[in-house]
Specification:
two-stranded antiparallel sheet; 6 helices
Amino acid sequence: MSYNSATTPGERASLDARTAALVIAAVSVISLTAAWSFELAGYAPCPLCLEERIPYYAGIPGGILAAWFATRAPRVAALILAALMIGFLYNAGLSVYHAGAEWKLWPGPDTCASDGTLKPGALLQSLRNNAVVRCDEAALRIWGVSLAGYNVLVSGALAIVAAFGIWRSR
């Protein structure tokens, strides 16, 4: 995007924050659509996968709101982008944990992983919750990387985009 000499620095920053917010909203839509497509293809999400979708659900309305506020109230847009950045940073960390559990670098959460041993009451509990998908086994790897691994990259990139939007809105 080119700027003419009539554009003030504040307008330039607002346009950049707007672009960052729209990128976050668009990538959130694409990511959720991809996740739902994999689900329709038969790859059931584990509890961590479902939790990792939450920042994307927030990224759509948050990105749209931040884009709208970018030219009207840049500080409000920056606050929304800051909240999105924190959410995507958290998500990147959660995805590192998830990917590490899939590679057996550390144990996954008790709610969706097992070490193969049966504890008292565990059989009855597993019969009640027989639809639980394991978090410590990758359902799908593309070029050797699980979907949790790709989520690390996408969430990290969106956090950087949000940070850029905040920086440009100053």
